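ok trying this again, last paste got cut off
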Amino acid sequence: MKSMSVTPPSDNRIAQLIDANLDRAREGLRVMEDWCRFGLKRSDFSIQIKDWRQQLGLHHHSIYRKARLTSNDPAMGVSHQLQKVRSTPEAVFIANSSRVQEALRVIEEFTRITDPTLCEIATTIRYETYEIQIKVLNSSEGINKRKILQDSFIYLITTNRSDLEEVVLQALKAGVKIVQYREKFLNDNEKISQAKCLASLCKKYNSLFIVNDRIDIAIAVDADGVHLGKEDIPTKIARELLGAEKIIGRSTHCLEDIKNAEEEGCDYIGIGPIFSSETKKELNPIGIDHLKKGSSETLLPAFAIGGINNSNIKKLNQINNLRIAVSNAIINSNDPFSKTEELIKFLTCN
């Protein structure tokens, strides 16, 4: 950037407000930087924000500092009631991002003639903070999704039935935190309509809504992610289409599949079918021993899937930190709420 001379403002009050807003912008940037560093563990974000803070500090000239107004500031210590309702780190980040943008706008307006270099820097940083705010919020969203995923032990996969929304609602009320929409019979318009309804229900209960196979439908309804089979679209392409904050899961049937899913950056895996499955009749059961070995050799959340029901679930007692994905056991139950509670109790008490 070309260096330009600085002309002291003819009115000392202008120097005072430039000084105050430089302080305000740098303080806000420090809050943003520290959340990215310690909260999100995103060094790329924190390094970028630190650079903006340093740039403003370099141009915080003595002519502004010497004009500083403190004891005679009529607004010193004044707060606002909305400051007391920022209950999440994201709310604090947004508030400070807005604070930075407002301060930079003031600096721009009052330095156009006397300090054009600072004006240009303030303009550039202000526009860049708009972009990083979206990136940080997306990153926070991704962390929240993965926290829900990590804490979940039962995964509900839907099948076609007329009262599906009510069944899913009962499962959500009972504690299900992940629902996968799997629909093979409806046309696309019907699928999108139903998926939107289910996505809304999941959001209400702070649960993840995943779409089976169809990335286009996942994007259309703003789902939390997709579940892909072995022959589906490559994970790399899915990630490019969905973004870093979305969840991507893979079906695996052998140790090689599990290794590939890890290397591709999947967020979780399904291992199966463990038992004979009505949903995947063409696949032979891989058995409990494979499940035990596969789940012990991956750090990804791994859900046992395939034919799990009341009559065989106790056979999985030997699996540490057992997670299961079920469909018929809940979807076609006479009492989805009670059945879900029963399964969750089994998983969390063993």
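PB: full thing came through this time. The CA atoms of residues 37 and 46 lie 5 Å apart.
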